[in-house]
Design brief:
Low-confidence stretches of chain B: 1-11
Structural class of chain A: alpha+beta
Number of domains of chain B: 1
Number of domains of chain A: 4
Strand order of the largest sheet of chain B: 1-3-2
Helix content of chain A: 40-55%
Helix content of chain B: 55-70%
Strand order of the largest sheet of chain A: 4-5-10-7-9-8
Number of strands of chain B: 3
Number of helices of chain A: 27
Strand content of chain B: 5-15%
Oligomer: heterodimer
Low-confidence stretches of chain A: 1-10, 477-484
Largest sheet of chain B: 3 strands, antiparallel
Largest sheet of chain A: 6 strands, mixed, barrel
Radius of gyration of chain A: 38 Å
Mean pLDDT of chain A: 86
Number of strands of chain A: 23
Distance between the termini of chain A: 45 Å
CATH superfamily of chain B: Winged helix-like DNA-binding domain superfamily/Winged helix DNA-binding domain
Amino acid sequence: MKQSLRSWLWRVPVDQEVDEELAFHLEMRTRELIAAGMDPAAARETAINRLGDVARLKRACVDIGRKRDREMRLTQWLEEFRDDVRFAARQLAHAPAFTLVAALTLALGIGATTAIFSVVHAVVLRPLPFPEPDRVMSVGEDWQGRVSSASVGNFTDYRTHLKSFSSLAAKQFVSYNLAEGDQPERIVGGRVTHTWFDVIGIAPLYGRVFTADEDKPGNDRVVVLSHRLWTRRFGANPSIVGRVVRLNSEPYAVLGVMPPQFDITSDSEELWTPVAFTAAQMAEHDEHFLECIGRLAPSVSVEQARAELRTLYPQMQAQYPGNNQVKLGVLKPFQETLVGDYRQRLLVLLGAVSLVLLIACGNVANLLLARGGLRAREIALRAAVGAGRGRIVRQLLTETLVLALAGAALGLALAWVAVPVLVASSPEGVPRLEQAGLDSVVLAFALGAAFLSALVAGLAPALRTARTDLRATLNEGGRGGTAGRDRLRTALVALEVALALMLLVGAGLLVRSALNLQRIDPGFDPRGVLSARITLPEARYDNPTRLVRTFEELAERLAQAPGVEAAALNSQGPLVPGGSSNGLLPAGKPFSSDAVTQSALNIVTLDYFRTMRIPLKRGRLFTGDDRRGAPLVMVVNESAARGLFPGEDPIGKQVGCCEGGPDNPRYKTIIGVVGDTRSSGPAEDAEPEFFLPIEQSPDIAWRWIQNSMTLVARSRTGDAGALINIARGAVRAIDPTVPLFQVRTMEQRMQTALAQARFNTLLMLLLGSIGLVLAAIGVYGVIAYFVAQRQQEIGIRMALGAKGPDVVRMVVRQGMQPVVLGIALGLAAALAASRLLTAYVHGVTTTDPLTFAAVVALLGTVALVATALPARRAVRIDPTRVLNSM
Amino acid sequence: MTLMQKTTNALLHGTLDALILKTLDGAPRHGYAIARFIEDTTDEAVVVEEGSMYPALYRMERRGWIEAEWGTSELGRRAKFYRLTDAGRAQLATETAMWARFAAGVSKVLLETA
């Protein structure tokens, strides 16, 4: 009683409460003073004076009163919430089957969504682990629609002219041969400017980083180790600082060790040496191999920096004509560069998994509706003892929330198991993926998903249940509810079907695309070919003649080994990372961006085409006569031929590239055209490519490719793995100190190249299947409910002579109406959404009619079965029993 | 305002809370009755400053020491009655003990040096 009186009191606005209270006080005091003999006017004045400044007093009281009411409302809300939660827990415990099914359904949805979110969070959303990461920008330039690396000259100009950055840095990826102990190892390192550490903004863990002075030629035999390398190879021993390690057979003094957060990804570089630009390099504007980053100066916006870069480029073009033609500076957040196109890929996946969660919510809503019908009496009773509709809705929603929280707890357990599996089975090279896990942000996400699911699944059923007509229900003895045309349930079926259709279309498109990829001809024959990388250290292989002789000797030795059908070396084999590209310009054409065909450079030994089985389309291949000193020749692939001489026969035409100047152009004559190869994998289009015989390779090119070649050998038996030891033996015979690395069969490389597509397909297929099963359960549940509601009607019809099949048809027809509506809705939505997959499908459009038709057929069939099952049960009912129960 | 006066007011401030709580210990009363009761009982030695009594009532209600409900006054007017809560009773005990200690201490100084 006290409780209700207080809640009544709260509805009096505070200022009215204060007014009334003070007025009462004044009246009482005045009365008393009059009774004591004072005259009424004086009495009133005295009473007011005793209270003091009435307006101020009132303000003070109202102020405190408001705070009091706020706190009390919160307290009451919390108390009611606590009561609701207890009540809900009891209610749920009394219906274990319902609770289990609903909680498991939500667990599946929330768990899958949370698992995918944890990946999205790790890879895309989480800021990089250094100070103000959003101020660190990648600075590059636009080259025929792509972001290219910068030349040393351009980087020098950035540093001189750009005022928007407090610090600019550049990095060149190099691979080092680290000889420490008895195991030589290839290590990816970065040759960086000393400012690299400033831009990132992280201090070393031990020792120091290099100074501007050490970043100069001659002083640059110093190295900073990554935490990863330091732990892996040096036993995390701090005393390594000051010692000397041998990189590519040369001594480098260890200056310091970086902390773990400097290892941004698991495959980022493992050590840093000074890049130490020479004066000649700083004047060079044509060789683009530097990754540039910069930290924005305080209070400079990204837009301002971008504008500054835009004005710098025309100046650079004017200053170095012929080198910086029609180029534009590009600026984007370093994090974006790092994450690349995984951002959209993962967001699409997150979208797909939220569709699964929505379907799960649909099913739970359906269960709640059924349960609400059963509880009509209880609800009516509670309404009868004075609980308002809002209060009942709140209680029902709390019950759903308890369910959803239980589902989230189960879902987190599911995600805890699923995330490591997801990480382990995902393709290589997804940046920061290994850092995915269940941290506080992911927990908060799961909690949010639970609240949202509770609202989505619970609101409509709660409103429906609370609307239950009191008198009708109590009179009718509890059978009530809202039978007959049930719009809410119909809508649920339609929505679930629509969502499932979207998922299945996505999965279907990816499956078709994956099948296409398996069939795509890569342009060479990967079966039975072994490939491996080899680098000859600069210290001992310092002149091009020696390099060429050694590589040729290796190719010959390998070709003559038993079991080898053919062998060759090349600078940029298909599916092998690395290499460089150059602009090709037909002889006599003036330089312009449009005239240049940017093509991959591939320096090859004679048997390369035969080893890879790349077909000759026109002209001839290289022979032993195309040696140093002979007329310069090149072979191009069809894409390069089309780019250079569209509609013309390229054979015999002259092309400038790679070396020479206006006075000595060193043109090369095209002698042959070979078929295109998909060098970046079956999913990527073939790029223009040109081939030079190793003996005629420009001296400067050895620096571009860092003395590294790829060895390819074709097995006579088709067993590429059997060639591994033979290849190692051949390398050992030529130079025992040089390691062979990245040893893989070409078929393995094909699998790796397809791994991303296969992984996406598998995930979408998994999500699509879960969606289909959930939607089928949803449809089944609703139809079963309809049939149960209409048992009497069906019984009467059958008693009046209706045949079983007629009744089944009637029920199915009615059940399929929302399914058809859902399919129509889903088709429209899928047509709009499937565009997001454009970048990930190959050989199939995102509106592929075959896929859409197959999905509609599959979904329609499943829904038909889900409707027919309860319909068939309905006709097996004994009519007399139904009629008797009336 | 001098420092001395401030201290006195602060002292009275706490005392006012204690007096109100004590007044409500017997039965629920409205604000005016509380003021009258204190005046009567202390023979008007303590004059309740009405301007601070009402904010004190609201403050104590917010703290949960007292609670209010509307009732009918002796003259048939609607009035807001305050009653002591359990928390208020505990607070009264604390304040009474504190006052006793304080009064004893002050007495010792004043009476023994006199």
